[in-house]
Amino acid sequence: MILADIGNTRIHIYENGRVIHLSHIEAIQLYGDKKVYYITVKKELEETLKELKNWIDISSKINLNGAYSTMGVDRKALSLSHNSGLFISAGTAITVDIVEDSIYKGGFILLGLREYLRGYANISPALKTDLNRDIDLDRLPKSTKDGISYGIISSIKRVIEQYQNDKKIYISGGDGKFISSLFNNAIFDESLIFKGMKRALKDLVNKNSQ
Question: DSSP for 75-86?
């Protein structure tokens, strides 16, 4: 079974236990003739996707108990990957969602790391910098780069810690590996969304067979 998570900038393909990341054009060229089950948040691609006869949109099948109506389908799928936990997708935005006993309890959305940096740069050219991912959060910074890095990383870490308690943290996304390093009891797994998709499909098949 081939699964696809279609995001705003890339299409993430899951095949034979492996995840690959492709541009929209590359994914359609390589997999356009194959049978693919997909979810999408990219509205601009809807008409193109409808022309792919072997691609099946299962976005409406991703049902998370307690989720609100406008919650992104990718967040729902991620939150379905395990029965309980704190689920983080670290990409263009950083989404944080909590599930307890398969019931969605709520969540929040932060800017992604690059968007934080872009925001600082928009304030002043003097604040344009890259991120010091090795910043020591136990010491006050003494440079612009470290001050910005401290502000970004510390704010993300501390707001998530408010809700962690003894929950296991499950993290995916392009910056997921780095974000996972900030926490104890955190697991980075880029296949989490696909695990949620497979679970939804399995539940659907079981329901239809009853």
Answer: HHHHHTSSSSEE
pLDDT digits (tens, 9 = 90+) for 135-173: 999 999 999 999 999 999 999 999 999 999 999 999 999
CA distance 67 to 128: 38
pLDDT tens digits for range 94-118: 999 999 999 999 999 999 999 999 9
CA distance 9 to 132: 25
According to the model, what pLDDT value does residue 210 have?
47
- In the set 74, 97, 175, 189, the catalytic residue is 74
What global pTM score does this model have?
0.90
The full set of domains in the chain, from first to last, is 2-57 (3.30.420.40), 73-198 (3.30.420.40)
Extended beta strands in the chain, E state? 2-6, 11-15, 18-22, 36-40, 55-57, 85-90, 93-100, 103-111, 169-172, 186-188
Q: Is 189 marked active-site?
A: no
Q: Terminal CA-to-CA distance of the chain, rounded, Å?
A: 23
